Protein backbone atom coordinates (compact mmCIF):
# COMPACT_ATOMS: atom_id res chain seq x y z
CA UNK A 1 0.00 0.00 0.00
CA UNK A 2 2.81 2.40 0.90
CA UNK A 3 4.47 1.80 -2.49
CA UNK A 4 1.20 2.53 -4.26
CA UNK A 5 0.78 5.76 -2.29
CA UNK A 6 4.33 6.88 -3.12
CA UNK A 7 3.78 6.06 -6.79
CA UNK A 8 0.54 8.02 -6.85
CA UNK A 9 2.23 10.97 -5.16
CA UNK A 10 5.10 10.91 -7.66
CA UNK A 11 2.71 10.83 -10.59
CA UNK A 12 0.82 13.80 -9.17
CA UNK A 13 3.96 15.97 -9.06
CA UNK A 14 4.51 18.32 -12.03
CA UNK A 15 7.11 17.08 -14.50
CA UNK A 16 10.49 18.77 -14.09
CA UNK A 17 11.66 20.44 -17.29
CA UNK A 18 14.69 18.81 -18.86
CA UNK A 19 17.88 20.94 -18.93
CA UNK A 20 18.69 22.56 -22.29
CA UNK A 21 20.97 20.45 -24.47
CA UNK A 22 22.37 23.04 -26.91
CA UNK A 23 23.17 26.43 -25.37
CA UNK A 24 24.63 29.39 -27.24
CA UNK A 25 26.03 32.56 -25.65
CA UNK A 26 25.99 35.80 -27.65
CA UNK A 27 27.40 37.87 -24.79
CA UNK A 28 31.01 38.06 -23.62
CA UNK A 29 29.99 38.34 -19.98
CA UNK A 30 27.54 35.44 -20.23
CA UNK A 31 30.34 33.29 -21.68
CA UNK A 32 32.00 33.15 -18.26
CA UNK A 33 28.89 31.86 -16.53
CA UNK A 34 28.15 29.30 -19.22
CA UNK A 35 31.67 27.84 -19.00
CA UNK A 36 31.47 27.57 -15.20
CA UNK A 37 27.89 26.36 -14.81
CA UNK A 38 26.97 24.19 -17.80
CA UNK A 39 28.18 20.74 -18.81
CA UNK A 40 30.70 20.95 -21.67
CA UNK A 41 28.33 18.92 -23.82
CA UNK A 42 25.60 21.53 -23.36
CA UNK A 43 27.69 24.34 -24.88
CA UNK A 44 26.93 24.75 -28.59
CA UNK A 45 28.67 28.07 -29.11
CA UNK A 46 30.33 31.09 -27.47
CA UNK A 47 31.16 34.58 -28.67
CA UNK A 48 34.19 35.11 -30.87
CA UNK A 49 35.52 37.51 -28.24
CA UNK A 50 35.65 34.65 -25.75
CA UNK A 51 38.68 33.27 -27.60
CA UNK A 52 40.62 36.55 -27.37
CA UNK A 53 42.89 36.83 -24.27
CA UNK A 54 42.78 40.64 -24.36
CA UNK A 55 39.00 40.52 -24.04
CA UNK A 56 38.25 37.35 -22.10
CA UNK A 57 39.80 35.97 -18.88
CA UNK A 58 38.68 32.46 -19.90
CA UNK A 59 40.21 32.40 -23.39
CA UNK A 60 42.31 29.32 -22.57
CA UNK A 61 39.20 27.43 -21.40
CA UNK A 62 37.04 28.43 -24.35
CA UNK A 63 39.48 27.38 -27.08
CA UNK A 64 37.88 23.93 -27.37
CA UNK A 65 34.39 25.32 -27.93
CA UNK A 66 33.03 26.67 -31.23
CA UNK A 67 32.17 30.32 -31.69
CA UNK A 68 28.91 31.54 -33.17
CA UNK A 69 27.62 34.84 -34.51
CA UNK A 70 24.25 36.44 -33.83
CA UNK A 71 22.90 36.22 -37.38
CA UNK A 72 19.86 34.07 -38.07
CA UNK A 73 21.93 31.81 -40.34
CA UNK A 74 24.58 31.17 -37.68
CA UNK A 75 22.07 30.46 -34.94
CA UNK A 76 19.91 28.21 -37.09
CA UNK A 77 23.02 26.19 -37.92
CA UNK A 78 23.86 25.83 -34.20
CA UNK A 79 20.31 24.66 -33.37
CA UNK A 80 20.26 26.01 -29.77
CA UNK A 81 17.42 25.40 -27.38
CA UNK A 82 18.68 28.21 -25.11
CA UNK A 83 20.36 31.47 -26.13
CA UNK A 84 22.11 33.73 -23.60
CA UNK A 85 22.14 37.39 -24.64
CA UNK A 86 23.24 40.68 -23.11
CA UNK A 87 20.12 42.61 -24.05
CA UNK A 88 16.64 42.00 -25.37
CA UNK A 89 16.50 41.62 -29.14
CA UNK A 90 20.18 40.74 -29.56
CA UNK A 91 19.27 37.45 -31.24
CA UNK A 92 17.75 37.77 -34.71
CA UNK A 93 13.93 37.40 -34.39
CA UNK A 94 13.99 35.05 -37.39
CA UNK A 95 15.67 32.48 -35.16
CA UNK A 96 12.58 32.13 -32.99
CA UNK A 97 10.48 31.54 -36.08
CA UNK A 98 12.73 28.71 -37.21
CA UNK A 99 13.56 27.09 -33.86
CA UNK A 100 11.87 26.10 -30.66
CA UNK A 101 14.27 28.05 -28.47
CA UNK A 102 14.30 30.21 -25.38
CA UNK A 103 16.30 33.39 -24.82
CA UNK A 104 17.71 34.46 -21.46
CA UNK A 105 18.91 38.05 -21.05
CA UNK A 106 21.92 38.26 -18.72
CA UNK A 107 21.96 42.00 -17.89
CA UNK A 108 25.22 43.87 -17.23
CA UNK A 109 26.53 43.65 -13.67
CA UNK A 110 27.16 46.90 -11.82
CA UNK A 111 28.01 45.29 -8.48
CA UNK A 112 28.99 42.04 -6.85
CA UNK A 113 25.36 41.62 -5.78
CA UNK A 114 24.43 41.69 -9.47
CA UNK A 115 27.04 38.99 -10.18
CA UNK A 116 25.53 36.77 -7.48
CA UNK A 117 22.08 37.23 -9.03
CA UNK A 118 23.46 36.42 -12.48
CA UNK A 119 25.07 33.22 -11.20
CA UNK A 120 21.73 32.01 -9.86
CA UNK A 121 19.87 33.11 -12.99
CA UNK A 122 22.17 31.27 -15.42
CA UNK A 123 22.62 28.21 -13.19
CA UNK A 124 18.87 27.70 -13.02
CA UNK A 125 18.47 28.23 -16.77
CA UNK A 126 21.11 25.64 -17.69
CA UNK A 127 19.65 23.11 -15.25
CA UNK A 128 22.35 23.21 -12.54
CA UNK A 129 21.18 25.54 -9.74
CA UNK A 130 23.46 23.76 -7.25
CA UNK A 131 26.50 24.84 -9.27
CA UNK A 132 25.37 28.43 -9.03
CA UNK A 133 25.29 28.23 -5.24
CA UNK A 134 28.69 26.50 -5.21
CA UNK A 135 30.15 29.25 -7.40
CA UNK A 136 28.75 31.94 -5.10
CA UNK A 137 30.25 30.23 -2.04
CA UNK A 138 33.60 30.00 -3.79
CA UNK A 139 33.59 33.68 -4.78
CA UNK A 140 32.52 34.71 -1.27
CA UNK A 141 35.38 32.67 0.23
CA UNK A 142 37.95 34.18 -2.16
CA UNK A 143 36.76 37.72 -1.51
CA UNK A 144 36.84 37.21 2.27
CA UNK A 145 40.59 36.61 2.08
CA UNK A 146 41.39 39.81 0.17
CA UNK A 147 42.40 42.74 2.43
CA UNK A 148 41.15 46.29 1.90
CA UNK A 149 44.52 47.76 1.02
CA UNK A 150 43.16 51.02 -0.42
CA UNK A 151 43.14 52.65 3.04
CA UNK A 152 40.66 55.33 1.96
CA UNK A 153 42.85 56.76 -0.79
CA UNK A 154 41.20 58.16 -3.91
CA UNK A 155 41.23 56.62 -7.37
CA UNK A 156 39.77 57.39 -10.77
CA UNK A 157 38.98 55.25 -13.77
CA UNK A 158 39.86 57.94 -16.31
CA UNK A 159 38.80 56.78 -19.76
CA UNK A 160 38.61 57.95 -23.34
CA UNK A 161 37.83 61.63 -23.90
CA UNK A 162 37.82 62.33 -20.17
CA UNK A 163 34.98 60.09 -19.04
CA UNK A 164 35.04 58.38 -15.65
CA UNK A 165 33.21 55.45 -14.04
CA UNK A 166 30.98 56.95 -11.39
CA UNK A 167 28.85 55.73 -8.49
CA UNK A 168 26.76 52.68 -9.30
CA UNK A 169 29.17 51.12 -11.80
CA UNK A 170 31.10 47.87 -11.53
CA UNK A 171 34.38 49.78 -11.36
CA UNK A 172 33.05 51.86 -8.47
CA UNK A 173 32.05 48.63 -6.73
CA UNK A 174 35.56 47.26 -7.22
CA UNK A 175 37.14 50.41 -5.80
CA UNK A 176 34.94 50.25 -2.71
CA UNK A 177 35.69 46.54 -2.27
CA UNK A 178 39.45 47.20 -1.96
CA UNK A 179 39.03 50.26 0.27
CA UNK A 180 39.43 53.03 -2.30
CA UNK A 181 37.30 56.15 -2.64
CA UNK A 182 36.05 56.93 -6.14
CA UNK A 183 36.95 60.47 -7.18
CA UNK A 184 33.55 60.87 -8.83
CA UNK A 185 31.78 60.11 -5.54
CA UNK A 186 33.81 62.77 -3.76
CA UNK A 187 32.87 65.28 -6.45
CA UNK A 188 29.20 64.28 -6.48
CA UNK A 189 29.28 63.26 -10.15
CA UNK A 190 26.81 60.85 -11.84
CA UNK A 191 27.32 57.27 -13.01
CA UNK A 192 28.84 58.42 -16.32
CA UNK A 193 30.85 61.53 -15.55
CA UNK A 194 33.16 63.77 -17.53
CA UNK A 195 36.11 65.84 -16.42
CA UNK A 196 38.38 67.93 -18.60
CA UNK A 197 42.10 67.38 -18.20
CA UNK A 198 42.34 70.69 -16.31
CA UNK A 199 39.57 69.64 -13.89
CA UNK A 200 41.16 66.25 -13.42
CA UNK A 201 44.51 67.80 -12.54
CA UNK A 202 42.81 70.16 -10.07
CA UNK A 203 41.19 67.21 -8.25
CA UNK A 204 44.20 64.95 -8.61
CA UNK A 205 43.48 61.46 -7.17
CA UNK A 206 46.01 59.18 -5.51
CA UNK A 207 45.70 56.57 -8.24
CA UNK A 208 44.67 56.27 -11.86
CA UNK A 209 43.13 52.95 -12.90
CA UNK A 210 44.04 52.00 -16.46
CA UNK A 211 44.13 48.97 -18.72
CA UNK A 212 47.37 48.53 -20.61
CA UNK A 213 48.38 52.09 -19.83
CA UNK A 214 49.18 52.73 -23.50
CA UNK A 215 47.36 55.32 -25.57
CA UNK A 216 45.99 53.64 -28.69
CA UNK A 217 44.43 56.71 -30.34
CA UNK A 218 43.66 60.38 -29.78
CA UNK A 219 40.68 59.52 -27.59
CA UNK A 220 42.88 57.74 -25.05
CA UNK A 221 45.96 59.93 -25.46
CA UNK A 222 45.13 62.00 -22.38
CA UNK A 223 46.10 59.14 -20.05
CA UNK A 224 49.71 59.74 -21.16
CA UNK A 225 49.54 63.52 -20.82
CA UNK A 226 52.52 64.97 -18.87
CA UNK A 227 50.14 66.74 -16.48
CA UNK A 228 48.97 63.43 -15.03
CA UNK A 229 51.94 61.24 -15.89
CA UNK A 230 53.10 61.29 -12.27
CA UNK A 231 49.90 59.80 -10.84
CA UNK A 232 50.57 56.18 -9.79
CA UNK A 233 48.75 53.66 -11.98
CA UNK A 234 46.73 50.60 -11.04
CA UNK A 235 46.63 48.20 -13.99
CA UNK A 236 43.39 46.33 -14.54
CA UNK A 237 43.10 44.71 -17.98
CA UNK A 238 39.86 45.05 -19.88
CA UNK A 239 39.35 41.30 -19.70
CA UNK A 240 38.77 41.73 -15.94
CA UNK A 241 37.25 45.21 -15.89
CA UNK A 242 34.63 45.02 -18.63
CA UNK A 243 32.52 42.16 -17.28
CA UNK A 244 31.28 41.13 -13.91
CA UNK A 245 31.31 37.39 -13.42
CA UNK A 246 33.33 34.55 -11.91
CA UNK A 247 36.52 36.53 -12.64
CA UNK A 248 35.45 39.28 -10.19
CA UNK A 249 37.56 37.95 -7.26
CA UNK A 250 40.60 37.82 -9.55
CA UNK A 251 40.13 41.48 -10.44
CA UNK A 252 39.80 42.43 -6.77
CA UNK A 253 42.91 40.44 -5.87
CA UNK A 254 44.89 42.16 -8.62
CA UNK A 255 43.90 45.63 -7.40
CA UNK A 256 44.53 44.79 -3.75
CA UNK A 257 47.98 43.34 -4.47
CA UNK A 258 49.03 46.46 -6.39
CA UNK A 259 47.76 48.74 -3.64
CA UNK A 260 49.71 46.78 -1.03
CA UNK A 261 52.91 47.65 -2.89
CA UNK A 262 52.08 51.37 -3.14
CA UNK A 263 52.57 52.93 0.27
Mind explaining what this structure looks like?
This protein is 40% helix and 12% strand. The protein has 263 residues and is α/β, with parallel strands linked by helices. The strands form three sheets. Strands 2-1-3-4 form a four-stranded parallel beta sheet, covered by helices on one side. It is elongated and about 60 Å long.
Characterize this entry briefly.
With 263 residues, this protein is of the alpha/beta class. It contains 12 helices and 10 strands. Helices cover 40% and strands 12% of the residues.
Task: For this entry, give a set of tags.
elongated, 4-stranded parallel sheet, 40% helix, 263 residues, single chain, alpha/beta, 12% strand, disordered N terminus
Topology:
Layout: H1 2-12, E1 23-25, H2 28-37, E2 43-45, H3 59-62, H4 72-78, E3 82-85, H5 93-98, E4 102-105, H6 112-125, H7 129-144, E5 154-156, E6 163-165, H8 170-177, E7 181-182, H9 183-186, E8 192-194, H10 197-202, E9 207-210, E10 233-235, H11 238-241, H12 248-261
Parallel strand pairs: 1-2, 1-3, 3-4, 5-7, 5-9, 9-10
Antiparallel strand pairs: 6-8
Helix count from the secondary structure assignment:
12
Mean pLDDT: 87
**Sheet bearing the most strands, described?**
4 strands, parallel
- E-strand count: 10
Secondary-structure element pattern, one letter each: HEHEHHEHEHHEEHEHEHEEHH
Radius of gyration in whole Å, from Cα? 22 Å
- Which structural category fits the helices and strands? alpha/beta
- What's the end-to-end separation, in Å? 75 Å
Could you list the spans in which at least 5 consecutive residues all have pLDDT below 50?
A: 1-15
Beta percentage is: 5-15%
* Proportion of helical residues: 25-40%
Strand order of the largest sheet: 2-1-3-4
Morphology: elongated
